[in-house]
Structure formats: structure tokens, C-alpha cells
Design brief:
Layout (H helix, E strand, L loop, with lengths): L1 E6 L5 E7 L3 H20 L2 H17 L1 H12 L3 H26 L2 E5 L3 E9 L2 E5 L5 H15 L2 E5 L5 H13 L7 E4 L3 H9 L4 E5 L2 H14 L3 E4 L4 E5 L5 H13 L9 E7 L3 H13 L19 H16 L3 E4 L15 E4 L6 H4 L6 E7 L2 H8 L4 E2 L2 E4 L3 H10 L6 E2 L14 E2 L2 E2 L4 H7 L1 E9 L1
Parallel strand pairs: 5-6, 5-8, 6-7, 8-9, 10-11, 10-16, 11-14, 13-14, 16-17
Antiparallel strand pairs: 1-2, 3-4, 4-20, 9-19, 12-13, 15-18
Helix pairs in contact: 2-4, 2-5, 3-4, 3-6, 4-5, 4-15, 9-10
Bound molecules: nicotinamide-adenine-dinucleotide.
């Protein structure tokens, strides 16, 4: 059985095929990962960092090739795909440079007679399951820290980007990372289900909350930990004093980059009533200046959605909003001239809470704008979601953004033109946006067993 890879910029352009892993192959890969892990862990952090450094170098030599695979298979505009690869490598570099410090032992107590030390030990075999929206960063974010702590990784990449996954695996196979320490299995959710049934020690998952819920039950049954980076419906709040010209580009990027297919992207804009007209007019003009086009074209700002399924879901969400009274300020349809999974960047006002664009995660280039009168109302609207991943505050009033950053029930918050996306910051969410954190010292420790030993001196 084969996974057929297609180019979302076109109606039906087949890029290649990848054989779906059988149950036997999955069982075998996990067995090999179990054997390889023991030696990988025992070699110590300096050895592992050297091997992962070598992998990083090989990736650096192939940035253009990886970006080109991402762009044609997943539909990310080529300039953004290159940034995805460079950003992933920046993360990997940080993990390598800091692993020794954060995985070193710590003394918690010491007297003349005794010393108590905490050690961070590898968990064992990690089953990593990732989505398609940042095919390279999704891989780095779930595999990088695992490899450095001494876990082996069996990864299942998304069925929407099997060629990117194959290419990544081929580079790992050329690196100094010993055989069996990292491997991939190929297929859709059914393959993922088989993978997590195996003899594994931790599940590392990035994807939707629905799948996360299922995997949580699998982890409970096996009594193993699970790290989950799930969906989001981040609000951006534009306060009365905000200088729209200064933050317009940031609002645009936080919403429309990667065609709006970003887990912690800005998905609902909550604007003070005095600013709604200015924000919607200026955003409309900005959207009209953006090029919607074939992903591999360097001039493209907004590419296609990854699949017809995602496009149809988005259309259903917009139709539901229009039926319930939303006003289309810009977009609201597929572009006439393109045949792939394209949707115009869209701006909607007159939003009510019963609309799907408000209550569901919108994974595409559609932004609903809701207005507010008071600070309390803005926070209530922002927190009116089952998710709690990102939060965006637009104001020049320090008191307001300090208070709002506390009041938002999300794992990450940023103000104006800043970004929290940094390898040393914890990434993760409250509520149904996940459990645990990637990156920084936080990410390393999620993947370790923590042991304390009381030594006599
Ligand atoms: P998805 O949950 O459908 O699929 C994610 C991965 O899980 C894929 O590899 C898929 O094959 C696999 N899978 C599906 N069902 C499975 C099952 N029953 N058992 C095991 N594996 C299974 O999600 P998606 O549509 O591919 O990705 C989009 C979602 O991911 C969005 O909700 C987005 O917000 C979220 N996401 C979150 C983050 C984050 O860091 N929080 C990052 C990127 C994407």
C-alpha cells in the first residue's frame, strides 16, 4: 500500500509515492530503537551532542532542497519554507549548545556528611507523531531534544508530507547518529495507532486536540507520560491606544503566515470599538497587496491550503458565519485564477459567538474581528475558547499589557511586535491546547526521568 503525495498548488499533480509501513515493520523499528537506545544513552551527552551537531551540518548543506520539498508537497510559500528550515536549525543549534548544562546533575542538599544530587536520565524509546504544517520544525521540535537526552525516536510524520519525511530520514541516515536511534514509519492515523501500541516509554505528539485525546487514553492504559502540543484559537486584543500602523504587519504575520495554518497563530481579533473601522480598512488594503499564488513562486505571500479537506472545512466555517450575519470585508472565496487548494485571505466582521469561526479552530487565512467596549469584555472574549496556546496584546500602555498578560489563560503571550518563539522559551498551552512544554530547559526535562540520590561523603 502506498501514500500518494500530491502538490496542493495544482488540481492533481502527483509528486511521488511512499510505501505505508506494515505492522511488522513498525514492530521491528521499535525493537531496533529499544536496542540502540541503551548504547546511545550510555555514550553520554558529549558524544550525542557531537552526532547531533553533525546532523545539523548535513541539514545546513541541504536547506534549499528541504525547503523546495516542503513548498511543493505542503504548499508553504518557498520563502517561508526556507525560514521554517532555518528556524528549525536555529532551534537544534540551541538544543545542542545547551543540552549539557540542562542535563547535568544538580546538588539539592549538602552537609559535612552527605550530598543529595538530582540526575536527569533518558526515558527510553519515544514515539513521536507530528503534523504537516511546519514539516521541518515539527520534526526538530519533537526529535531534537529527545535525541540529546538519550532517548531513541520512532517518528511518524504526517500523511500529507511523506516525501519531506523521507528526505529528512535519508539525511539522518547519512549522519553520525547510530542506526536505530532515529527511524520513521509512514502512513496515516492508523499507522500512528499501531506505533503507540508498541513497547515505548513516552508519546510526544503534535497535532489536533481530538487525536491528542485519543493518545492520552492510550498513554493512560500503558501508564506512560505523554507530551502534547495541540490546537489553538489565540486571540489578539487591539486596545484603544494602539498605533495600528506600527502593529499592522505583526497582526498580518501572526494571522496569515503559512496560509493561517499555525497552531498558535492569531485566530480571533478583538478590537476596541473605536478602532474596528481603522483596523479592518488597513488590513483590507494590506491583504489586497499580497500575492496569492503557487507555493514555489518566490513572489507568493499566501499559498494553498495543504489539502482539499482543509479547504472544504474552512469554506464551511465561512459559510456558517455568513449565514449567521458576518460581513465579508475582504476575500471570502476561492480565487478564480488558481486551480489548487487556494482560498483568498479573508477578513470578517459582525461576528457572534455562535459562529464556527469563533468557537472552532480556524486553520486557514480567515480572520474574524469582534469588537469590545471595556477591558473586562476584551479579556472575557479572548478567554472564550477551549484552547489556551498563544495570546497577542496590542497596546502601548504597559499597565494594560502587564495586566492582560496575567489575565489571558494561555501558555504564551506577546505584545505588539515581539515574538515568544525562541528556543529557550517553553512552548505549550493551557486547557485543550496541550500538556507539557517543548524547548528550553523545560523541554529537556519533560523527556527525562528525574532521579535523586543521597550520597554519603
Ligand atoms: P491530526 O491530529 O489530524 O494529525 C497529526 C498527526 O497525528 C498526523 O501524523 C496523523 O497521521 C496522526 N494521527 C491522526 N490520528 C491518529 C491516531 N488516532 N493515532 C495516532 N496518530 C494519529 O492533526 P493535523 O490536522 O495533521 O494538524 C493540525 C493540528 O495540529 C491543528 O489543530 C494544529 O493547531 C495542531 N498543531 C499544534 C502545534 C503545537 O505545537 N501546539 C503545532 C502544529 C500543529
Amino acid at each position: 500500500m502506498k501514500l500518494v503525495s500530491t502538490n496542493p498548488s495544482f488540481e492533481s499533480q502527483v509528486l511521488g509515492e511512499v510505501t505505508i509501513s506494515t505492522e511488522e515493520e513498525i514492530v521491528q523499528k521499535v525493537k531496533e530503537a529499544r536496542i540502540a537506545q541503551k548504547e546511545w544513552e550510555s555514550k553520554g551527552i558529549k558524544f550525542r551532542a557531537k552526532c547531533v551537531r553533525n546532523l545539523n551540518t548535513l541539514f545546513e548543506e541541504n536547506i534549499e532542497e528541504i525547503a523546495s520539498h516542503i513548498s511543493s508537497e505542503m504548499g508553504m510559500p518557498i520563502t517561508q519554507a526556507r525560514e521554517d528550515v532555518e528556524s528549525g536549525l536555529n532551534y537544534l543549534d540551541w538544543y545542542i549548545n545547551n543540552a549539557e548544562e540542562y542535563l547535568g546533575s544538580e546538588t539539592t542538599y549538602e552537609t559535612d556528611n552527605e550530598v543529595h544530587k538530582v540526575f536527569y536520565e533518558a526515558k527510553g524509546v519515544a514515539a513521536a507523531i507530528v503534523p504537516w504544517n511546519f514539516p521541518f520544525s515539527n520534526f526538530i521540535w519533537q526529535a531534537g531534544q529527545n535525541l540529546l537526552v538519550g532517548n531513541s525516536v520512532v517518528m511518524k510524520h504526517s500523511e500529507n508530507c511523506p516525501l519531506v519525511a523521507k528526505y529528512i530520514e535519508s539525511i539522518v541516515n547519512k549522519s553520525d547518529i547510530p542506526a536505530g536511534v532515529f527511524s520513521e514509519v509512514y502512513g496515516d492515523g492508523e499507522v500512528g495507532k499501531i506505533l503507540v501500541k508498541q513497547d515505548i516509554d513516552i508519546i510526544c505528539f503534535t497535532g489536533s486536540t481530538n487525536t491528542g485525546k485519543y493518545l492520552y487514553s492510550v498513554a493512560a492504559e500503558k501508564f506512560i507520560p505523554i507530551l502534547m502540543e495541540l490546537g489553538g484559537s489565540a486571540a489578539g486584543i487591539v486596545f484603544e491606544d494602539s498605533n495600528i500602523d506600527e502593529v499592522l504587519d505583526s497582526i498580518y504575520l501572526n494571522k496569515y503566515i503559512n496560509c493561517g495554518q499555525v497552531c498558535d497563530g492569531l485566530k480571533r481579533l478583538i478590537v476596541h470599538e473605536s478602532k474596528v473601522e481603522e483596523v479592518s480598512e488597513k488590513l483590507k488594503t494590506l491583504l489586497a497587496s499580497k500575492k496569492v499564488g503557487i507555493a514555489t513562486d518566490k513572489a507568493t505571500d499566501i499559498g494553498p491550503l495543504v489539502s482539499k479537506k482543509q479547504l472544504e472545512r474552512l469554506e464551511e466555517q465561512v459559510s456558517d458565519a455568513i449565514e449567521k450575519g458576518a460581513k465579508v470585508v475582504y476575500g471570502g472565496a476561492r480565487p478564480d485564477s488558481l486551480e489548487g487548494n487556494f482560498y483568498m485571505p479573508t477578513l470578517l466582521t459582525n461576528i457572534s459567538k455562535d459562529m464556527k469561526v469563533w468557537s472552532e479552530e480556524v486553520f486557514g487565512p480567515v480572520l474574524p474581528i469582534m469588537s469590545f467596549k471595556t477591558y473586562e469584555e476584551a479579556i472575557e472574549l479572548a478567554n472564550d475558547t477551549n484552547y489556551g496556546l498563544g495570546g497577542y496584546i496590542y497596546t502601548n500602555n504597559k499597565e494594560v499589557y502587564k495586566k492582560a498578560s496575567k489575565d489571558l489563560k494561555t501558555g504564551m503571550v506577546t505584545t505588539n511586535n515581539l515574538s515568544y518563539i525562541m528556543p529557550f522559551n517553553p512552548f505549550g498551552g493551557y486547557k485543550k491546547s496541550g500538556i507539557g512544554r517543548n524547548h528550553g530547559k523545560y523541554g529537556f526535562r519533560e523527556l527525562c526521568n528525574i532521579k535523586v540520590v543521597a550520597f554519603e561523603k
